[in-house]
Design goal:
By secondary structure, the protein is an all-beta fold. Helix content is 3%, strand content 56%. Strand 11 (130-136) and strand 12 (144-150) form a beta hairpin.
Length: 272
């Protein structure tokens, strides 16, 4: 990034305690009045840069699972101010849950989905009935999760549409009453982010699925609870859901890609 004619440049890189770059860290820069004047995410090598008017600034760097970092700097006209490496310290409350068996609380959890309709709008829905368990092992990578979803509990707030989704065109709940997810690998790319690889059985077909998961920590409320959110993307064709009604201009009525979002609270049943 070149230095602007009427200002200066500030840059730096964000790293973890081991010196590894933190890609996607959030960097915000505030002026003397505490107004945010620049905001960016670090690149794959942890670097960021911003062009600013001359003056005093406060730089804040944040990443999931780490304590935020604050640094002050002075930007002068026609100069480049390098902050060097900003090291983020892990947040001990967002490492991993207490090892043990957790039962998913359906009253405080949700499994939602979004599908594109006639390439113009999105249809939002969820499954109302599901159950599952999460086992957090002493060695985190050995953890496991299993979830069963009642296919007939699909709900999009439109009775006719829900009946169609339950039909043989889509979920075919008479033949395939359950959706089943079971994990085979847990990993932690860094901070409070997990990757959970597993297999989803839907419509009689099993396909690999990866859940991009954010761990939210633990709280005590009617039992010790751990929380997380997760997202993934499914393709209907992978599960032989091939209903292909097309509009006259060649646009599919229902898009092939389904976005899945999970909000999960697990209640600790027994500690390891």
């Amino acid at each position: 990034m070149s230095i602007p004619l009427t200002g200066g440049l500030v840059s730096g890189d964000v790293r973890d305690g081991e010196g590894k770059p933190l890609a996607g860290a959030h960097v915000a820069i505030f002026d003397r009045s505490n107004k945010c004047v620049a905001r960016s995410e670090t690149d794959p090598y942890g670097f960021f840069a911003a062009a600013l008017m001359p003056g005093a600034y406060r730089v804040r760097a944040e990443a999931g699972g780490y304590q935020s970092f604050h640094e002050r700097t002075e930007v002068e006209w026609g100069t480049h101010s390098s902050l060097g490496s900003l090291t983020l310290i892990p947040d001990a409350t967002l490492t991993v849950p207490t090892p043990g068996l957790y039962e998913i609380d359906p009253d405080h959890s949700a499994i939602r989905f979004v599908a594109r309709h006639i390439a113009m709008s999105r249809v939002y829905g969820q499954f109302m009935e599901f159950a599952g368990q999460i086992y957090i092992a002493e060695r985190f990578e050995d953890s496991q999760v299993e979830v069963l979803i009642d296919a007939a509990s699909v709900f999009t707030n439109a009775e006719k549409r829900d009946a169609h989704l339950r039909s043989a065109d889509f979920l075919d709940v008479a033949r395939f009453p359950k959706l089943h997810f079971t994990s085979h690998r847990f990993s932690r790319p860094g901070g409070n982010r997990w990757l959970i690889d597993g297999e989803l059985t839907l419509h009689g077909m099993t396909s690999d699925v990866q859940l991009d998961t954010t761990y939210l920590g633990m709280q005590e409320w009617n039992g010790m609870r751990a929380g997380c959110t997760a997202t993934t993307e499914l393709h209907r064709e992978h599960f032989t859901v091939n209903w292909q009604q097309i509009l006259a201009r060649g646009v599919p009525v229902v898009g092939s890609t389904i976005q899945i979002t999970l909000d999960i609270q697990g209640i600790l049943q027994s500690a390891k």
